[in-house]
Design a protein that fits this description.
This protein has 4 helices and 2 strands; from the N terminus they run ββαααα. The protein is mainly alpha-helical. It has a two-stranded antiparallel sheet. β1 and β2 form a beta hairpin. The protein starts with 7 loop residues before the first strand and ends with a helix. 12% of the residues are buried.
């Protein structure tokens, strides 16, 4: 459930379109796409660990500061994990309620 973030989205609480803040590291969206299997819109099986390693290699190759981007990427991965936990909790089967059998003989004896 790790998805790319659009530049604008509708905030339900504010009831209006809000601009998304840009990540501190421009390579985060690439890492998110890689973790999703190459898609920002629909999540497919990918490797989050491989995406993080690739992100670090690209940041270091460009001689950029790694920590701000790593913090943002970690936050995105944690948000995805929390969202997935909520989905799994909501989709878990609910226990069936078993009602006791009605004693129809007792009910029919009252009317006599």
């Amino acid at each position: 459930t790790l998805l790319g973030q659009p530049c604008q989205f509708y905030d339900v609480k504010l009831e209006r379109v809000v601009r998304q803040t840009a990540p501190k590291c421009p390579l985060i969206e690439d890492a998110v796409s890689e973790a999703c299997g190459g898609s920002l819109e629909f999540s497919h099986l990918g490797s989050a660990a491989g995406a993080v390693r690739g992100h670090r290699r690209r940041v270091e190759a460009l001689a950029m500061d790694y920590l701000p981007g790593a913090r943002d990427l970690l936050k995105r991965l944690e948000q995805a994990s929390d969202a997935m936990s909520k989905v799994l909790t909501a989709s878990a089967p609910k226990p069936k309620v078993t009602l006791p059998k009605l004693e129809l003989e007792f009910i029919s004896e009252i009317g006599r």
